[in-house]
Specification:
Elements (H helix, E strand, L loop, with lengths): L2 E11 L8 E17 L3 E8 L13 H13 L5 E8 L9 H16 L6 H16 L7 H6 L2 E7 L2 E6 L5 E7 L5 H6 L7 H20 L2 H7 L6 H4 L6 H10 L4 E4 L6 E5 L2 H17 L4 E7 L6 E2 L1
Parallel strand pairs: 3-4
Antiparallel strand pairs: 1-2, 1-11, 2-4, 2-5, 5-6, 7-9, 7-10, 8-9
Helix pairs in contact: 1-2, 1-3, 2-3, 6-7, 9-10
Length: 308
């Protein structure tokens, strides 16, 4: 095999109460990538579509290629030549794991072309390097679900331990309002210290959410999707957040929250029709406030990256 086309999914990090340790993948949106082997050594980005010229073409500075360079170095295959064509099919800086999807797409494609020398778990640290390059923090709550699919729990970072969780039948409604909330800024406003009573509440919610995934207890899932530490601060950066949350819950959402660092918000539903109705109402409400938005509706992605 000398060329390959792959898709890597967008992801929802944190899942309300699980800051930096929980995430899940969605079927839409995501990134597509074509990778070709060449006779000339080195990794090159031939083209990038859908980024409005914002992403660097320098292979050392783009997550899609920098992670592949690191992988080839680790495998002792620096002499291999790879050309990359990347198609961004999601908004950047949206809280949907854009850099994560690119890194995972590149690593997955390269690993496939090389005959799958590494497992997905072994690819994970390279994907985390891409996150560190993109936003300054090498966390795994986006790249782990993008790689493994489904819900993932980062049990620990030192040593790195990732647990795949059960995936009940759910529909994820995503709304990306066209406002700027840079990841670095969103992290900087988070409190460095929290009250013990808030920490205890948060631990209970995380445990409840994980239990609900195993038991498919949708009521428990909804009661557990509450954040008393991060959301009260970050939600200030997202226009009409409280109103959107009220609308989603009024349409039957099990829970509502911020995807990653935002500004995208997400809600989980048992019904696709209810999810679609909620998205249309929120989009219309934002439009009345002069705010454009993108909406996506998807089941939970259970596969992670795939060969197209």
């Amino acid at each position: 095999m000398e060329s390959i086309k792959v898709f890597a999914p967008a992801t929802v990090a944190n899942v309300v109460c699980g800051f930096d340790i929980l995430g899940f993948a969605v079927n839409e949106p995501g990134d597509e990538l074509i990778m070709e082997m060449t006779n000339k050594p080195g990794v090159n980005i031939i083209s990038i579509e859908g980024d409005e010229g914002k992403l660097p073409l320098d292979p050392a500075k783009n997550t899609v290629s920098a992670t592949v360079i690191s992988l080839l170095r680790y495998l002792g295959k620096e002499g291999i030549g790879l050309n990359i064509k990347l198609k961004k099919m999601m908004p950047m800086g949206s809280g949907l794991g854009s850099s994560s999807a690119s890194a995972v797409a590149g690593l997955f494609a390269a690993n496939e072309l090389l005959g799958k020398p590494l497992s997905k778990l072994e690819l994970l640290p390279f994907a985390m390097e891409g996150e560190a390059l993109a936003c300054g923090h090498g966390h795994a709550d986006n790249v782990a679900p993008a790689l493994f699919g489904g819900f993932t729990l980062i049990k620990s970072y030192e040593p790195l331990e990732v647990i795949s969780l059960p995936v009940p039948k759910l529909y994820c409604a995503l709304l990306y309002p066209h406002v700027d909330v840079p990841t670095r800024d969103a992290r900087q406003i988070i409190r460095s210290k929290v009250l013990l009573k808030d920490a205890v509440t948060q631990w209970g919610n995380i445990a409840g959410l994980i239990s609900a995934l195993y038991t498919q207890d949708y009521d428990l899932l909804g009661r557990s999707m509450k954040d008393v530490i991060i959301e009260p601060i970050r939600s200030i950066l997202i226009p009409e957040f409280d109103r959107m949350k009220e609308m989603a819950l009024g349409n039957g959402a099990l829970g509502f929250g911020i995807s990653g660092s935002g500004p995208t918000v997400f809600s989980l539903f048992k019904s696709a029709d209810a999810a679609q109705k909620s998205l249309q109402e929120m989009k219309q409400m934002l439009a009345q406030q002069g705010i454009e938005s993108n909406i996506y509706l998807s089941e939970i992605n259970k596969k992670g990256p795939i060969v197209l």
